[in-house]
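Sat 14:20. Reprocessing the chain from the morning session after the first attempt stalled halfway. Input below, unchanged.
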Amino acid sequence: MSRRGLLLGSAMVLGAGMAASLCPTISLAAVDNGVAARFMELSNLLINHQLSPAVGARIAETATSQYQNLSQMLDAIIAIAEKKQGTQVEDFFADIPDGELKDFAHWVIFAWYSGCSSEKRDATVFTYEEALTFKTTSDILTIPSYGISGPNQWTRPNLPLSAPMPTF
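Finished this time. Tokens:
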């Protein structure tokens, strides 16, 4: 192998790695579409907000690694909701048995509202801007951020002058 071939090959590997890191949706392919769809169905039953499917896929991906029997828990909670003909969490939440199922339902609600998997330092962060904690007051409060004009906005926009400037 020549030096030129090695250089081109390593440049291609580096470029592919950078492209993959810039596109987080590629990593979401690890979650089974059926599990992701059932997770979103459960999430919509537990939470009465407009939920982002992209954030839901990230939460479902973490849930598959944290809960080995995720599929059975999703089916069990959805079956309880269907049995009670529940369309919102208040209709069926009291009927979820204490233990693993109720803990999982609490975890799903916590994940959507906080945007992360737990309160620990090594928690997986799913979202910051779309965490439901900030959605309830989004019409009157900005999301706390070190950004000048909002999350992920690190510069102030240049505003056009509306009045004529004086000449000296």
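Residues 25-29 have pLDDT under 50 and may be disordered.
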